[in-house]
Write a structure and sequence with these properties.
By secondary structure, the chain is mainly alpha-helical. It has 15 helices and no strands. It has one domain (2-308). The protein has helices at residues 2-19, 21-26, 33-54, 58-68, 72-97, 101-121, 129-149, 154-173, 177-202, 212-238, 241-247, 250-262, 269-287, 291-295, 299-308. It is globular and about 65 Å long. The two termini are 18 Å apart.
Length: 309
């Protein structure tokens, strides 16, 4: 139980940090999303190396690095994870800097449903009656938001799928979170460096040529990237993927508030109704495993649960 509480704290903290990230990316919206992504990858890798060094774990990283090439399946798994998270980063940065914060928040409302689905289908995690009700309410809220767009919300779907699959890969890897994140950023860093080198050769690099503030913010992207991911990785190891999925509502809620009240994006009645259903779902899910709620399950569900236990 103590481990579960720690997992919830780690995961919730990660989602709060992710929730306020639009504020950070908006400060450098004059820099192309691809260049921000490249800097984000490189500086995240540098920051992780620094963390490993001060925590006296750099030697462990070197050993794991050597072993990585002797374990092709692990290398492939880490490569897939790094591609998924890099794709997620790019779509989110592009969305924020092109005034699609609300649609990005929709993606992270859908994301928990993807995580819960993956948890039940792949990891065989069990949900009780009230948890299914909560998922249904959340799905209804998300459906309202999705229909409101009148077309396929590619930003939302891309964010939901890439991060949901990334969360699953972290769960299946069973790899040290700090070492794993360093490996993931290391794998894509060469590609990012080549891209930044090409920009520099063409004389169109923003780093060092824009304002000092923007240059520092590009370098700081490593910290704002690595810190929540470290917390997220720690959290996923201690709690079920279903719980991780539902805690993810924290980030889009914060982003949604920023989109409406800070960036003044259009917010409709449909958004208000969907928001209501999603928070009702959050409340139901949070009390779904209490003794009172378990006793209130329909009789056939209760009997089935008793047989399983």
């Amino acid at each position: 139980m103590e481990a579960q509480k720690k997992g919830i704290i780690y995961a919730a903290s990660a989602y709060m940090m992710w929730g306020i990230l639009p504020l950070y990316w908006k400060l450098i919206d004059d820099v192309p999303a691809e260049e921000i992504l490249a800097h984000r990858i490189v500086w995240a890798f540098v920051f992780m190396l620094f963390i490993l060094f001060i925590s006296k774990r750099f030697g462990q990283f070197k050993n794991e690095f050597v072993q990585l090439f002797k374990r092709p399946k692990l290398f492939m798994s880490l490569t897939i994870a790094s591609i998924l998270i890099s794709g997620n980063w790019f779509v989110y940065i592009w969305a924020v800097n092109h005034n699609h914060v609300i649609e990005a928040s929709l993606g992270y409302y859908i994301n928990p449903l993807v995580s819960i689905l993956l948890g039940t289908l792949v990891l065989k995690e069990k949900l009780n009656f009230w948890q299914y009700i909560a998922v249904g309410l959340a799905a209804f809220g998300v459906a309202i938001l999705t229909i409101r767009y009148g077309s396929i919300p590619w930003i939302a779907i891309s964010l939901a799928c890439t991060f949901g699959l990334y969360g699953l890969s972290k769960k299946l890897l069973d790899y040290d979170s700090m070492i794993g994140l360093t490996m993931e950023t290391m794998i894509v860093t060469p590609i990012a460096l080549v891209y930044l080198g090409m920009l520099g050769a063409k004389g169109i690099s923003s780093f060092g040529t824009v304002s000092i503030t923007s240059t520092l913010l590009l370098a700081g992207a490593g910290i704002v990237t690595a810190l929540p991911l470290l917390y997220f990785a720690k959290g996923t190891k201690l709690i079920s993927l279903s719980m991780v999925g539902f805690l993810q509502y924290i980030a889009p809620t914060i982003s949604l508030v920023l989109g409406i009240f800070v960036f003044h994006e259009h917010f409709t009645n449909a958004h208000m109704i969907a928001f209501f259903f999603i928070w009702i779902a959050l409340f139901v899910f949070s009390i779904a495993k209490t003794k009172f709620m378990l006793n209130k399950q329909p009789k056939f569900i209760k009997n089935k649960s008793a047989k399983v236990s």
